[in-house]
Write a structure and sequence with these properties.
The chain is α/β, with parallel strands linked by helices. The chain has twelve helices and eight strands. It has helices at 8-15, 47-58, 64-67, 73-78, 112-123, 143-156, 176-182, 199-202, 208-221, 239-251, 278-290, 308-330; strands at residues 62-63, 84-86, 127-132, 161-165, 187-189, 226-233, 256-261, 295-298. It has an eight-stranded mixed sheet, sandwiched between helices. Helix 10 (239-251) links the parallel strand 6 and strand 7. Helix 5 packs parallel to helix 6 and helix 6 (143-156) runs parallel beside helix 7. The mean pLDDT is 93. The chain binds iron/sulfur cluster (SF4). Iron/sulfur cluster binds at residues 64-65, 70, 72-73, 76, 81, 83, 303, 305-306. Iron/sulfur cluster is lined by residues 64-65, 70, 72-73, 76, 81, 83, 303, 305-306.
Length: 331
C-alpha cells in the first residue's frame, strides 16, 4: 500500500524550501477521512516502473502522474503509461483539489516538444496523453506549445495516437483552441472537474460554461476529433447535479466521460466530503451511457488518463458501431 497523502509539503517545511502551495500554506488543516477498503493501489517499485522513470528523467520531463501524486502511478508506469505534463511544473492557478505546485512559472523550454516526442518514441506508446500546467502568464495560454508538441510527436512516432488534456485558455488569444485543434490531436480532453455549484470553492479561477463551450467548440472546429471530459466525485456534489452535468456535456456533443473519486492530496486541500461507493460509480456509468456518451469510465480510481490507450480503442469502435447503426436506420 502507498499513502495517498502527499508528504512533499511537510518535507519543504522541514528543509526550509518554499512551500509547494504557498497560497494554501496558512489555511487551517482540513480533516482527512479514513479511506475505505475499495481504495487500494499498487505501490510503485517494479522494474517497469523504474524503466519509465529512467526515460522520463533522461528527457528532463515532468509528468502529471508524479506532480499530482496520482494513486495509479505504480500500475501505469509498470506498463510504461506516463502522462506528459508540459510547460513546466508550476501552475498559475490554485485549485483547491490539485496537488501540482503553484507559483510563478519559468520561461517555456523551446526543445520540450522534441524531448516529449523522443520519450514517447522510446517508450513505444500506442497512445499518449499530453497535459500541462495552467499558464495564465502566456498570451496564448500555451496553445502554440501544445500544437508544437503534437506535431513533434507525429513526426517522431507517427503510429502513436495523441490525446491532449488542456487548460481552459480563459481570456487567452488569439484563437488558442483553433491553434491546438489545427495540429489534429486524436482526442481533445478538458476536464470540468466538478459540478457548477462547487466551482467557487474548488475551481475558483475557472468558469463552468466557458469550459463547456470549449469542448463544444473543439468538436465544431473538427467534427472528427473525439472529445472527452472528466469529473471528480466526493466533493459535496449532489447526484442530480452530476446527472445535469452529463446532460450539459451531451449538449456539447462530448463523446467520453470519466468519473473518479476525489482524494485529498494534503491537509491544506479541500476535504473529501464522502467516499462514493463502487455501486454508485456503476450507476453513474449506466446513466451516462443512457444519455448517449460513446464511452464512460467510472470507478473510484478512474482518472482522466487512466487506461487512456485501451479506452481510446474502445471509443473508436463505439463511434464506428454508432455510425453504422445510424446509416442502417436512415436507409
Ligand atoms: S492515471 Fe494518468 S496520471 Fe495517474 S499514473 Fe496513470 S497515466 Fe499517470
Amino acid at each position: 500500500m502507498v499513502t495517498l497523502i502527499d508528504k512533499r509539503d511537510g518535507e519543504a517545511e522541514r528543509t526550509g524550501e518554499a512551500p509547494r502551495h504557498p497560497e494554501k500554506a496558512h489555511r487551517p488543516d482540513t480533516p482527512v477521512l479514513r479511506k475505505p477498503a475499495w481504495i487500494r493501489v499498487k505501490a510503485p517499485g517494479s522494474a517497469g516502473y523504474a524503466g519509465t522513470a529512467f526515460i522520463v528523467r533522461g528527457n528532463g520531463l515532468h509528468t502529471v502522474c508524479e506532480e499530482a501524486g496520482c494513486p495509479n502511478i505504480g500500475e501505469c508506469w509498470e506498463k510504461k503509461h506516463a502522462t506528459m505534463m508540459i510547460m513546466g511544473d508550476t501552475c498559475t492557478r490554485a485549485c483547491a483539489f490539485c496537488n501540482v505546485k503553484t507559483g510563478i512559472p519559468g520561461a517555456l523550454d523551446a526543445v520540450e516538444p522534441e524531448n516529449v516526442a523522443r520519450a514517447v518514441a522510446t517508450l513505444g506508446l500506442n497512445h499518449v496523453v499530453v497535459t500541462s500546467v495552467d499558464r495564465d502568464d502566456l498570451d496564448d495560454g500555451g496553445a502554440a506549445h501544445f500544437a508544437a508538441t503534437i506535431l513533434a510527436i507525429r513526426s517522431a512516432a507517427p503510429a502513436t495516437t495523441i490525446e491532449v488534456l488542456t487548460p481552459d485558455f480563459l481570456k487567452k488569444g488569439p484563437r488558442p483552441l483553433e491553434t491546438v485543434i489545427a495540429a489534429r490531436p486524436d482526442v481533445f480532453n478538458h476536464n470540468l472537474e466538478t459540478v457548477p455549484g462547487l466551482y467557487l470553492g474548488i475551481r475558483p479561477g475557472a468558469r463552468y460554461f466557458h469550459s463547456l463551450r470549449l469542448l463544444q467548440r473543439a468538436k465544431e472546429l473538427d467534427p472528427t476529433v473525439f472529445t472527452k471530459s472528466g469529473i471528480m466525485v466526493g466533493l459535496g456534489e449532489k447526484r442530480n447535479e452530476v446527472l445535469q452535468l452529463m446532460d450539459d456535456l451531451r449538449s456539447a456533443d462530448v463523446d467520453f466521460l470519466t468519473i473518479g473519486q476525489y482524494l485529498q492530496p494534503t491537509r491544506k486541500h479541500a476535504a473529501v466530503d464522502r467516499f462514493v461507493e463502487p455501486a454508485e460509480f456503476d450507476s453513474y456509468k449506466a446513466h451516462a451511457y443512457a444519455k448517449g456518451f460513446l464511452m464512460v469510465a467510472s470507478s473510484p480510481l478512474t482518472r482522466s488518463s487512466y487506461l487512456a490507450g485501451d479506452d481510446f480503442a474502445k471509443l473508436k469502435t463505439a463511434r464506428l458501431a454508432k455510425t453504422t447503426h445510424d446509416a442502417v436506420n436512415t436507409v
